[in-house]
Each structure stands twice: as C-alpha cells, then as structure tokens.
Design goal:
Layout (H helix, E strand, L loop, with lengths): L30 H25 E6 L5 H13 L2 E3 L14 E9 L2 E2 L1 H8 L10 E8 L5 H14 L4 E8 L20 H15 L1
Parallel strand pairs: 1-2, 1-3, 3-5, 5-6
Antiparallel strand pairs: 3-4
Helix pairs in contact: 2-5
This protein binds flavin mononucleotide (FMN).
Flavin mononucleotide binds next to helix 2, strand 3 and strand 5.
C-alpha cells in the first residue's frame, strides 16, 4: 500500500472556494437541484443529437466535378448523416432512417440514371417512412424544381413526404463550355455550402 503524504493545509479549500454565496437561480430551491436539472437537460440534448445522427441518410450521385458530393458533405456534417451512392444503399437501410436526402448533379435535364432507378424502384410498402428532401447542383439551378419533379412525383406516389428542395450552382464544363473555361467557376462556393448547411438545419427541425 502506498501512503500519500499530504499537508493538512492543502486539504482546506481557499476562502470561499466550493461554497455558493449566492442564491440558486430562479425556480430552484438549491444549487444541487439546479445542477441536477441542467445535467439532465444536457443529457437529453445529446441523446437527441445522437438519434438524429443515427437516423439521417444521404443518397446521391455526383460524377462530373463532385459538386453535388461537396453539397452532400456540408449537409452530412450538420445531420451527421451517412452518405451512400444509390448502388450501395439497399432499401433495408431505410427502416432505421428518419430523414432521407436524395441528391444528384443534373445531366441533360435529368438526375443521374442510377439515382432515378433507385427512387423508381423504392418499395412502396406501407409502414413508417423517412421524411425526404431533394438536392441538386447544376449549370442552371433556376430550373431545379423542373428537374426534381419526376423524383418528387415518384416519391409522393410511393407515400413519402417530400419536405423541401435545395439547389445551387455547380461548376460545369460540359461540351463547348469547356472551351470558355466553364460555367459557374468555383461553385459550389462557401456561400452555397453555408446555405446547404442552413437548409439541413431546417430539415432537422
Ligand atoms: C453530360 C452533362 C450534362 C449536363 N446537363 C446539364 C443540364 O441539362 N442542365 C444544367 O443546368 N446543367 C447540366 N450540366 C451541368 C451539371 O449539372 C453540373 O456541372 C453539376 O454541378 C454536376 O454535378 P456533379 O459534379 O455532382 O456531377 C451537365 C453536365 C454534364 C457533364
């Protein structure tokens, strides 16, 4: 056994240390009661965050410049979501999922064929389904709602509720645009990614 040599003076707290000289905050009878309450609140907040993390999923396809992947990454950071390509996401994954983001670059006015097939073949069986949002990057995101429409209709037909849609500009060097240095250089930029994070925060709420 090791005997610790301590100086009795060291065990005394300095004057006032460890003693509450003020009244507990309003609504509490004592400091311990207050401490217990805030620690319970912190625990509840952490549990909520952990549940959100376990239950958010992003399924997307990004093939041109990884523009959509960057947006997905920003959203996943907020949602602490798993990111998967459609081909790597079996439908069983949805059973444990509460919030599902579906995203793609736009190619000739459509979402990527792999993502489209994944959505088209989603099982429409009854039972709890995740809430869904759609996101995309494109050369001309002003038309995004038009390009998202087939996805939205297919999802709604299968009983999914589509909460909202997000779209932003993506660097585009398709065909002749390449000769001119491309369209939307440097997009998605920091501002686009900030908006993607804010959008994701709204989806959680
Ligand atoms: C083959 C091809 C076709 C495209 N077609 C369109 C289009 O119809 N409309 C549009 O706004 N952008 C179009 N784009 C631009 C892409 O949508 C844009 O660059 C997008 O950000 C790519 O996303 P990604 O890097 O995640 O693949 C096209 C790009 C490519 C390579």
């Amino acid at each position: 056994m090791i005997a610790l040599q301590t100086n009795p003076d060291d065990q005394l707290p300095p004057d006032g240390y460890g003693q509450a000289h003020t009244d507990p905050p309003e609504g509490y009878d004592s400091w311990p009661e207050y401490m217990q309450d805030i620690s319970a609140q912190a625990h509840a907040a952490m549990t909520t965050a952990a549940n959100a993390a376990a239950t958010s999923l992003l399924v997307f396809k990004s093939v041109h410049h990884q523009n959509t992947a960057r947006v997905a990454e920003a959203m996943a950071e907020v949602l602490r979501a798993d990111c998967l390509a459609p081909a790597d996401c079996p439908y069983e994954r949805l059973a444990e999922c509460k919030l599902l983001g579906i995203g793609s670059g736009i190619y000739y006015g459509r979402v990527h064929a792999e993502l489209w097939r994944w959505v088209r073949d989603l099982p429409g069986r009854s039972g709890p389904k995740p809430a869904v949002f759609i996101f995309s990057t494109s050369g001309l995101p002003i038309f995004a709602r038009l390009w998202h429409r087939p996805l939205k209709m297919a999802l709604t037909r299968k009983g999914f509720s589509v909460l909202d849609e997000f779209a932003c500009r993506g660097f585009d060097t398709w065909g002749p645009l390449w000769l001119a240095g491309g369209l939307n250089r440097c997009h998605p930029n920091e501002q686009d990614l900030k908006q993607a994070r804010e959008f994701a925060r709204r989806m959680v709420k």
